[in-house]
Design brief:
Distance between the termini: 58 Å
Number of strands: 10
Strand content: 15-25%
Strand order of the largest sheet: 1-10-9-6-7
Order of helices and strands: HHHHHHEEEHHEEEEEEHHE
Shape: elongated
Length: 349
């Protein structure tokens, strides 16, 4: 039974089923020429474009050209409409042979399977940002919105625990470009950063990420990132930035927000760079926001004003609860035409 299912789901099995369907159509046209329209022969080629891979599709398209020729001879009478219909179907079948197959040449999978692969790749990016198990006194959550509502973005998160759950390392990254154009680079970089973050001490992570980007030599090979390493027992943290907008901390005691500046060059531009750390502490009730420039940058507006606006919106939304704040804040501020990412770290009182 399993072997039969594999056969049915393979390209060859699907091609045979579609070929049987088109053959049945030809038989019906021969038996009932007045009741079966010529255009019905065209349906299998549409299904083939969606379902068949690159190795089988050319052969099936060739078969369809032969089927169209037979269907033409089975017509009792010819009209201008019949001739135009045949010409269009021949042309579309040839387009499938030449254009579609060539465009798929680098991948070799059907459209439907290609889309499922892209969904899997997107899920792998999101998996890099899954928050490890934390003590009940800590809340870490994130939200991401891509440009134009696309499922792919140049912004992503990386998170990992270390020291037997005593420490957590969090990274927010903004790859050059936005939306789908930056999605492939974000995928490759997220995997590399996930490995580097778990293998290196905090002070070596950004230099290693910078070296990795320089080795890739991408045409748009730069990215910005902010990395925070937090001791979950004491709340002490180290914050480093690579050309990224500054993190902001809310002090529960005063209710005021503080901009934390840790300057450093963007990743992938300059060799042998060291990134200075900004040291701080999250006391009970304190919070830390890490974000990408899509949250604070808008045309004709200074980034400092954007940061002030974001902090004001966060304070207003905070009156409800810290839980779910990232989603509400991403929906309230920033440009919908840009990727937006936000990470919240809150130490419960």
């Amino acid at each position: 039974m399993r072997r039969g299912r594999r056969w049915l789901t393979s390209d060859r099995g699907t091609a045979l089923l579609l070929g049987g369907f088109s053959t049945a159509v030809l038989v019906l046209m021969a038996v009932l020429p007045d009741d079966v329209p010529l255009a019905l022969v065209f349906l299998p080629i549409v299904l083939a474009v969606l379902l068949l891979g690159n190795s089988v599709l050319p052969w099936y398209a060739t078969w369809m050209l032969a089927a169209l020729t037979v269907a033409a001879f089975l017509q009792d009478s010819w009209s201008a409409r019949t001739i135009v219909g045949l010409v269009v179907m021949y042309a579309v079948t040839l387009v499938v042979l030449v254009v579609t197959v060539r465009r798929r040449g680098g991948l070799g999978v059907a459209r439907q399977r290609g889309e499922s692969m892209l969904v899997d790749l997107r899920d792998r990016i999101l998996a890099q940002g899954e928050i490890p198990q934390l003590p009940s006194s800590w809340l870490v959550e994130s939200a991401l919105s891509s440009a134009g509502g696309s499922a792919f973005a140049g912004d992503f998160f990386v998170a990992t625990g270390s020291d037997h759950g005593r420490r957590i390392d969090l990274v927010v990254v903004d790859v050059s470009g936005k939306g789908e154009a930056a999605g492939t680079r974000a995928l490759q970089l997220s995997g590399a950063m996930g490995g580097l973050l778990g293998a290196l001490p905090p002070d070596r992570f950004l230099p290693a990420a910078n070296g990795y980007l320089l080795q890739r030599a991408w045409e748009e090979g730069f990215a910005t990132a902010v990395h925070v390493s937090i001791d979950l027992a004491t709340g002490l943290f180290e914050l480093r930035s690579a050309g990224h907008p500054p993190a902001v901390q809310r002090h529960a005691g005063s209710g005021r927000w503080e901009v934390l500046r840790a300057d450093g060059p963007v990743l992938g531009i300059v060799e042998d760079v060291e990134y200075d750390a900004c040291h701080g502490r999250l006391d009970p009730g304190d919070s830390l926001l890490l974000y990408t420039d899509g949250m604070v940058e808008e045309p004709r507006r200074d980034i400092e004003l954007g940061i002030d606006h974001m902090m004001g919106a966060a304070e207003s939304l905070l009156r409800r609860s810290w839980d779910g704040l990232t989603g509400r804040l991403v929906g309230a501020v920033g440009s919908p035409d840009d990727d937006r990412a936000l990470l919240l770290v809150h130490r419960r009182p």
